[in-house]
Amino acid sequence: MAIEINKDLITQIAALVATQSDVAIQELLAEEHFADVAEILDEVNFDEATYIIKLLDSEKTSDILMELDEDVREKILKNLSVKEIAEEIDELDSDDAADIIAELPEERQEKVISEIEDEEFKADIQELLAYDEDSAGGLMAKEMVMVNENWTVTRCVKEMRTQAEEVTRVHSIYVVNDEGQLIGRLSLKDLLMAPARGNISKIVRPKVDFVNVNLDAEEVAKVMQKYDLEAIPVVDDNQVLVGRITIDDIVDVIKEEAEKDYQLAAGISQDVEADDSIKELVKARLPWLILGLFGGLGAVFIMEGFEDALSSYKHLFFFTPLIAAMAGNVGVQSSAIIVQGLANDIVKGSLLNRLLKEVGLSLINGIVLGLIILAVSPLIGLSFQFGLTIALSMLCVIIVAALVGTFVPIVLDKRGIDPAIATGPFITTSNDIFGIYLFFIIAKMMLGGF
Amino acid sequence: MAIEINKDLITQIAALVATQSDVAIQELLAEEHFADVAEILDEVNFDEATYIIKLLDSEKTSDILMELDEDVREKILKNLSVKEIAEEIDELDSDDAADIIAELPEERQEKVISEIEDEEFKADIQELLAYDEDSAGGLMAKEMVMVNENWTVTRCVKEMRTQAEEVTRVHSIYVVNDEGQLIGRLSLKDLLMAPARGNISKIVRPKVDFVNVNLDAEEVAKVMQKYDLEAIPVVDDNQVLVGRITIDDIVDVIKEEAEKDYQLAAGISQDVEADDSIKELVKARLPWLILGLFGGLGAVFIMEGFEDALSSYKHLFFFTPLIAAMAGNVGVQSSAIIVQGLANDIVKGSLLNRLLKEVGLSLINGIVLGLIILAVSPLIGLSFQFGLTIALSMLCVIIVAALVGTFVPIVLDKRGIDPAIATGPFITTSNDIFGIYLFFIIAKMMLGGF
Lengths: 450, 450
Hints:
The structure is a homodimer of 450-residue chains.
Chain A: H1 7-18, H2 22-30, H3 34-43, H4 46-55, H5 58-67, H6 70-78, H7 82-90, H8 94-103, H9 106-114, H10 119-129, H11 136-139, E1 146-148, H12 153-166, E2 172-176, E3 182-187, H13 188-193, H14 200-203, E4 211-212, H15 217-226, E5 231-235, E6 241-246, H16 247-265, H17 278-305, H18 309-312, H19 315-318, H20 320-343, H21 351-380, H22 384-414, H23 425-447
Parallel strand pairs in A: 1-2, 4-5
Antiparallel strand pairs in A: 2-3, 5-6
Helix pairs in contact in A: 3-5, 5-7, 7-9, 8-10, 15-16, 17-23, 20-22, 20-23, 21-22, 22-23
């Protein structure tokens, strides 16, 4: 289906660029989908990519630009003049055009916008740029097929031939009244089956899903996934139709959200990829490691406080990594399930029920694990009393860790903070310190003498 | 847009069911989207859900059944006769019908299939059931609009009126030759704009994306996301058109895959939700906890081996949780980035380059963290030599943990095992043990005397 992108191809293209074999390059890439060309440009070095972009037609390169890796696109745009950028943008849909402009440094944004010749397009872009990028307004495009309820079917089809030239994908035809307010929809199927002289208002389907322009992007994704929609109209507070969001943009939102949550859970604080520079990777990873380090130093401090136990109960200090690991694992498991539940809106039921469930769950897990400890203790030469102490304090640590792992995301979510921050190193570090402290306190109560 | 699903509504519905107020229930739910009704049924208790399903029309309940939470659906289906199930299935698209039958116990599957009256539909379902559920064949539906290249546009529109009744969403019209092989596509827009007596073969677009029926579901998702497709035809090894996959099914695949990876990273071994029973949650979480427990016991064993250090260097034992935490965090960060990179096909470049990058990254992170240790040691009353020992061994542990975290997923991936298993408790536990061992070995070399 598509050209296979491998080392040989990249070498071949690099050679063609080096010899400036323009015709050969164009032939090679002419039949390729823009997403494949973008993948190739992500792989060749930066100068070669710029060369190829300048060589190909604007009509193709604008789509290619959209598909490029963000960092590559940023570099290429730096090397284009504002006039060249405006030419590329002219070929795009309004949502993609607005996204590209938004990526530019502020001084360049104004200059590029002023270079856009189509006044209507310029106005559309400026309107879109005003919206929050994580809202429906930030996702939507102005291109869609919109008809007036008072038209006949014939006039509707005629208008559509004009409008549909602009629109890449026609799903529903949106029907508005004289005030521009969304009042219903039609499918192409409906139009095909309808009598030519019929009136739109007779065949319009009044039941139409829509979202408000200020709705959060993740909420839009949930609506579209729940109702299996492929496009959804966007209205303002007066129900006036202002734009449309298509499923391909939502698929990207879903993927990005999933990757962000996964990285937060692993203690990576910004959007990085395996092929990023070392500097980028350090910036993303070091902060969480420093947090973990201070957690570990906290544990050192706690253990210094209990060092009297070393003489009689040195094994307590051998068990600290085990206790910390259990506290961490249990905490991460609890928080991961809650974070996913919050994302899917399935955390219902009272907080008290959830508390009881986690305690019950932790009791069962803790008892099983405690029994394993008791079974293993004699093999390490520990007394039954000591084994029991370890098992019981581990049980308490597990219950507390599960409760913390459950409630921290819920509390964060209620305060409007992304609960996914509560998974990963944040939870493991705090549970480590607290778990070790609790462990020694209980051991002291049960064994005494220090 | 939709009814708001809250506690009051659930109580209201429960009351209506208790008093068997059938008309009231039907009125309340008549205007609701099936996805919303399914959400309501997920919330009411099981008997009430069954009552409502039996009350509503098959045409609506079949869609509702598809949207229900898996566990709720399983229970409801248990309470329906094979004839009743066949009636529900009759209203569904072939891919959904096949999915529901596949969820039933094997003995029931045969009986339900035999109750299906439409022979063609029965044959379709049986064909779909033969495919692997994680392949394109397992995702596709047989319903689509297919026209022959030799027809006129008029005949095409006529045939479509028949075929399109079955098809919920018409995106592309697929064009086949006399052997049934996919040779191109048309959009409804093309048909609208074409002269009535024209021939399909004159307006067909030969360039059409497609996937092979045996392609892995995740690969299908990547193709559809890359090329912004909303539907893709599926062909067999002879290029014969056998089905179609729509974007809404792919959105579900993407979401499920993301959730599965996230849960694996948190050490949860099967698909659970926050509202599952305690028994389900224990089964999913305990195995990883036991793994972590044995890791911790391994650490105990290692430390027993070095217990001679207790007299002179007791602080080594206070630092073990810190070392374990660093090894764990670094390992998880490395593996998370690699796992995401593998999923997005962006882990390119030689393995050697990757090795060097991780070592460089770990050196920088490790040196910064080591300097913090050196700065803090005097405050805890530790000698510079001791602080340096801790810092250096932590640096080695970090480098090793990063390499392990990088290479384990890559090796798993090359052997066809889901690399996501390598994140979470698996990595943290093995890095804990190895890290603590390495720590003591290096401390012994630098400090001596034990």
